[in-house]
Amino acid sequence: MPSKSTLCNSITTDTKDRPTRRAFLKSVGAAALAAPLLFNSSWAQTRGGRTRPSCVVVGAGLSGLAAAYALKRANWDVTVLEARERHGGRVHSFRFDQNRELVCELGGEWVGASHERIRALCREFDITLKDHRFEASLMRDGRVLRPGSWDFSAQANAAFEKFKTTYHGYKQRDRERLDRIDWWTHLEEIGFTPDDLLLRDLQDSTDFGESIRHVSAYAAASEYLESSPANEMDFKMVGGNSRLVEEFAKRIGDANIRTRTPVEEIRQQQRGGRVTVRAAGGVLYHADACICTVPARTLDRIKFDPPLPAAQRDAADRLQYSRIVKNQILFDERFWGAENFSLVSDVTSHYYFHGTRDQPGAQGILCSYAVGEKADVLAAQSDARRMEIITRDLLPLDARAPRLARAIESMPWQRDRYTEGAYAVYRPGQWFTVRPVLQRPHGKVLFAGEHLADWQGFMEGAVVTGEEAAAALSGRIRARRRA
Ligand SMILES: Cc1cc2nc3c(=O)[nH]c(=O)nc-3n(C[C@H](O)[C@H](O)[C@H](O)COP(=O)(O)OP(=O)(O)OC[C@H]3O[C@@H](n4cnc5c(N)ncnc54)[C@H](O)[C@@H]3O)c2cc1C
Fold this sequence. Notes:
The chain contains 15 helices and 24 strands. It is an alpha/beta fold. The protein has a 7-stranded mixed sheet with strand order 9-8-19-20-21-18-22.
């Protein structure tokens, strides 16, 4: 998720030497994955005298691809089953026919300075990361305020600074208490004025994809107080994020990734047997284990035999995904001026940013990011009408905006059949209750994906959970071989 709440200079973060949600929860996540798996000695296949275990990975998003790549390197037989016609899931780079030189992102966008695994993979795959930090203007009530000329009130800034200090001394019970209320209410309680709350909601809602009235205060606080100073909006991959997807796919082997293969059932024999995965059309895949990376909202379309425990099904039902429509508009001129331009706004789109910074040519692509109810409204329009609304909203910035617009490509994630939203939104009371339940393995089926990660909502989280699931499996087989 993009995360931009530190755009106003006065609210910055410093995470040095502090206990963090990532470090704190790592032990919890690892414990969940290490829960006993029901393997017995019959689980490994013998091929040419060598033991070579097998795994079916459901989903070819970053989580599934990272899991498959890690297993392949550990000498597993891996088959990845993907419902869509393409790899990458919520990572999807896009080029307009009218200008093939420019690349923009319809899904995941920035790489954070703290996103160690993504950064390491980019090094390994020779993908260049480029500085992509923005300065933000604010458009409110028809006026545009340039970077540095707008801020929260002194009262809100002081309250936030004080909260930061308190937060870093939090014990587990304090975190759980914070999780039980929403971010808006918490900010109100610490002293944000009504005007500050509205501004904060405009900013932070683009990080969560819903109003901060619906977001766990713990999920928000840990997000903002444990991230890089640019809130993980630090870099972008040169050539587009799909390059990471392609490099994974190359190494896993295209033949091992089946697209247009929606999984309908995951069946396990009682203790020690194999896993059978049934895809649409009745095709069966047999393996020793399965890693399922589908977003929680779509889990109920897969039949589990034996069924998932009621608590896990219930947790999946309760976890909501955010409503975000990303609209990429190709303009004949970069009328917004600075290459590092971005704009928080109170119009239909909560946020605009220049997605083709430093890419060649006069044309440029401005991304309009609408969330919550506004995203639903925009998603319901035709392309032509959407382009008209978005460019008309930009009139206070530059009267030429509607005239310079050439083409639009929109991706309303809440309407996407295979995610039903952009990323998981942990609502009040859910971080410490829903997430651990969803992380539990189900026999020989392990779960992974953005929604289960400490870096929840980020590409980093997807990759780390995929790699952790693979490590839980390959660690298990290594232990067996030693014994
Ligand atoms: C609008 C938007 C902005 C974002 N911004 C950022 C950002 O700036 N920085 C950042 O780091 N992250 C960002 N993210 C988040 C990041 O893109 C995701 O966290 C990550 O890509 C999720 O990967 P995943 O593998 O967990 O899930 P997915 O990518 O959703 O992969 C799951 C796969 O499972 C497939 N699937 C579903 N059901 C089935 C089935 N029954 N059978 C077979 N396959 C199935 C799906 O088609 C999908 O390909 C953003 C995401 C969105 C949508």
